[in-house]
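Q: Can I see a sequence and its folded structure?
A: Here is a first one.
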Amino acid sequence: MDATAPRKHYHDIDGARSVLMFLSVALHAGTVYAPARPHITANIDRAEFFDWLIFGLHLLVTPTFFFVGGFFTVLLLSRRSVGDFFWNRFLRTAVPLITIAVTFNMLEHYLRYADAGGGLSFFGWIGSVEFNHVWSSGLWQLHLWFLVSLIPMFALSGIIHAVLPAQSRIRDLAKKASIKLGAWADSEKGGRFAILVLLLAFVNFANYTAAAKIPGSYELLLPGFQSWYKLTSEFPFYIVGVMAALSPRLLSGLTRWRGWMPYAAAAAFIIQPYAFPDNGMWEGIGRLFANQLAIWVLVLFILQFFHRYANFQSQRTAWLADCALSMYLFHHCLVYIFGRAFVSLDWPIAIEFLAITALAAGTVVVLHEYVIRRAPLARLLFNGKTDIGAIRKQRGALGSRPAPENAPAT
């Protein structure tokens, strides 16, 4: 790739990732009040609406993240050496993961322990049986499981890129397959795209089914890590993201607006087909396939929506993209803290939910604006970036003006 050539910026895909990071706040705030997946606070107020909300958001948020992860992996490898790619992924993924895991995630786990009746102080809890179980069982991850799953995918991508020669047959076959799929997806024949969605759902269905058949697939591969099932469940979305980056026509086909997709996405979100343990064999198979179909419909609708309505850059969208990782990292613990604070209040449940969502998101915005964007060490540890000089010159979301050229470092 010509290093002097202008880089194409995918504002729509970056925007989708940013907005969904913010939407994750509402998803986790919903767990405070969801009967099926209750947050571990002492709050006893529950409403089935929140089950519907969080199950619906789960259908689209994380799968889209994995698609975006695969897509930008290819772009990074096309612009950087393999060594630079690994260093970038270490800074942007591993460093924030470790920092949050040992700080905010441990604070949340201690609060969970205290709320469950634990009597040890925070420092007494560290090193206790309960503390060791948090780490050995993988519970330490909480919402960070997404980053834990992404790291092996990044590593595999970098290794393959390093090992395969530039003109290897495998590279050629992968690109040709992506281009052919793109020709199918980008066709003017509307039925072809519908068939593609069905095909993608079947690939996911086959992936889940195969993973479930592997002995021990639900057990942790390593203490504190993840199971094979968890590690591979979102892999198809990452692969399709890779293919979309390899073939501009496939990306065009996936993001082209189709008038029937909003209706299909609304139906998928409202119906929310899920398979349950008590389903019969054939009902379970049907529900699992319908679940994967609903997920792909929602993911592709998100990509099409942002391509149509948010394929631009402004100061506001640039700030939103910069804040997205902070929002993802910090919000989970803050949702728990604010959810815990609302236990003693007898407000209408909808008001409490909106307040928790707004307070958690607002706290992250302030934290990002006045700490992450201004303190070099905080930006490195929590965002994996060393661009503090450039970021200080940009206008912040809260109207703060650029720092003077000779402003002292914070």
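Q: Show me another, different protein.
A: A second, unrelated one:
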Amino acid sequence: MNNDPIHIIGGGLAGCEAAWQAAAAGATVVLHEMRPARGTDAHQTDRLAELVCSNSFRSDDWAYNAVGLLHAEMRRLGSLIMASADACQTPAGGALAVDREGFAETVTQKIGGHPGITIERGEIPAIPAAWDNVVVATGPLTSRALADSILRLTGQDTLSFFDAIAPIVHFETIDMSVAWKQSRYDKEGPAGDSAAYINCPMNREQYEAFIDAVLAGPKTEFKDWETVPYFDGCLPLEVMAERGRDTPRHGPMKPVGLTNPHNPLVKAHAIVQLRQDNALGTLWNMVGFQTKLKHAAQTEVFRTIPGLEKAVFARLGGLHRNTFIDSPKVLDNGLRLKARPSLRFAGQITGVEGYVESAALGLLAGRMAAADRAGRTLATPPLTTALGALVGHITGGHLEGEPKSFQPMNINYGLLPPIEAPKRDENGQRFGKAERGRAKKRLMSERALADLDAWIEAEAVQAPE
């Protein structure tokens, strides 16, 4: 192994995972993080892997959910991010959610305690030409100077979209004589709790008044960003309402799968859910309530929600800009910049959306960078795996001809090659459409894990301890 360091820029989830994987493979790593020397509009601490939006890693169901499958694949490869999330999980029904402070502290301690990793604080305004093995994992909040430097290297324009942050409420200020704890359809999650969410019910009049207030409330606007699109997976609440008054009621405020124990015979018109945000259970975030409402308006409007009339907010919502490169045009399937192959990219800056997806690309980039240092090439996982499908999406390796407009995307089964699902169950009974769809997902997940195991053996990949 060449002892020259691999330089990893960015101490978020992707950068930390890349550093961990590269160091575990025997490489010397320098992890560069600009905080606290230079802050961002979204971060609040100098910890590595700080979560600035949701505290949820989404579904942990490997058999029937694509992100749950990605969880399973990353665990098989010794993911630092997944191990830290598992250690810091909080109840969240079928999802994997974490205590955000405990999670960031765990990752920071693990990275700081690894003998093969050196952490250097300070902004990197441009990538030095002398660095011959680099992973850029600066995320959606890349500094302006470095973003300009990257643009010059790629020869492409930056693509951007808005991302928003949801408010967090102190539990003791929620009126539990109105609200109640229950997961949708009483589904248990990895933490084994079927009552992982706090639910605040609304009747039709309350909902209509709430939507009126959301639409009328003063918003934070950035005129020089007005042409930047929103990412559909993280729409601000008011943008959802602008698309149709019932849009929130069919999205994060849907009332299905929940029964109000205070009034079980009355069906709510809409329900606001809060998810536990820390291990102590003292903080709860408002699910799907990303917003660009001004802070005073947020306090006024959100206190009209039944059960939150006296809510005290630990954090109010916010808005920030995300940036990503046109990866299908500028990256190869080894995540290397075609114009400068010594540079790899990982995380949200590549055009994946979501904590897990970002960390997954960090995992691959770190392993590939370490393989380069050792004088060999690590093949990309098969497209039939969630990891391989993500690489295929961002590099255009799954497409024929010139890639079309490139937009951020979460992992989903649509990125994996199709598979023929059985038409009948083991008893010979014909599947309905929904049952066949579930059977198909299960087969795709089983194929993915089998193909990943074969790739691990063929590439002699060793998982970090």
